[in-house]
Amino acid sequence: MPVTVLLVDDEPLVRAGLRAVLEAQPDIEVVGEGADGAAVIPLVRRLRPDVVAMDVRMPLLDGIEATRALLRTVDDPPRILVVTTFENDEYVYEALRAGADGFLLKRARPAEIVHAVRLIAEGESLLFPASVRQLAAEYGDTGGNRAARAVLERAQLTERESEVLRLMARGLSNAEIAARLVVGTETVKSHVSAVLAKLGARDRTQAVIAAYESGFVAPG
User: Fold this and answer.
1) Taking the model in full, what pTM does it have?
2) Of residues 12, 51, 56, the one with CA closest to residue 30
3) DSSP-assigned beta bridge partners for residue 51
4) DSSP 3-state of 67
5) Closest alpha carbon to 137 in 207, 86, 213
6) What are the pLDDT digits (tens) for 184-213?
7) DSSP of 127-156, one letter per residue?
8) How many helices (H) and strands (E) in the chain?
9) DSSP 3-state assignment of 198?
């Protein structure tokens, strides 16, 4: 089954460019388009895409609020890929904190766009971990977020789960973590699932943001 994608951006040329790149792939299908974040929820409910590629800055409802609304109101929501002009953008970090799964630069090369969509759909790796660390260092309340610290304390991660979370924050995939820890990939998947469940995180990105915000992992 192809990965289905909904494109949401107020610039028609951006949507057309993304559609052309993605539809050239046999395993990706663009199922719809929207011109503003306000259109996201009805489109998602009707089209049920696997991934929403959404601009972070839009005139009526931006990508941050659209992300919050989508995750709050839609059962089994799709993965959210924020599309942005600037990499070092506080809006991007706020979108990640709100629940977006990763971000993509509008100037990205076609191969990078395709890779981002596939990676977000799979959910087994952190997209652009170095950039997420940079955003957390610049805009995050790293170590000072009481709510995030409380979540980590209540989680009571085991020593191995803590190690897995640190490796996740560095951007390692399940296979790479397995090689580093000399265990099987299925064992790593079990640890990752346990970490996400204990933190109440829907995916790796949210777990890593919580790790940074709590001071459990330093973003530098």
Assistant:
1) 0.90
2) 51
3) 5, 79
4) helix
5) 213
6) 999 999 999 999 999 999 999 999 999 999
7) SSHHHHHHHHHHHS-TTT-HHHHHHHHHH-
8) 11, 5
9) helix
- As a whole number of angstroms, the distance between CA 185 and CA 200 comes to 22
Helix or strand run (H / E) with residue 116: helix 110-122
d(CA 207, CA 192) in angstroms, rounded, equals 10
Separation in Å, CA 28 to CA 100, 113, 209: 20, 11, 28
Q: pLDDT tens digits, residue range 22-49?
A: 999 999 999 999 999 999 999 999 999 9
Edge-to-edge strand ranges of the sheet holding 3-8 = 28-34, 3-8, 51-55, 79-84, 102-105
The owner of tokens 């790293």 is 142
Tokens of 199: 């933190």
Indicate the pairing of strand 3-8 with strand 102-105.
unpaired
The total number of residues written for the chain in this structure: 220
Element (H, E) at 213: helix 204-214
Q: What is the amino acid identity at position 101?
A: D
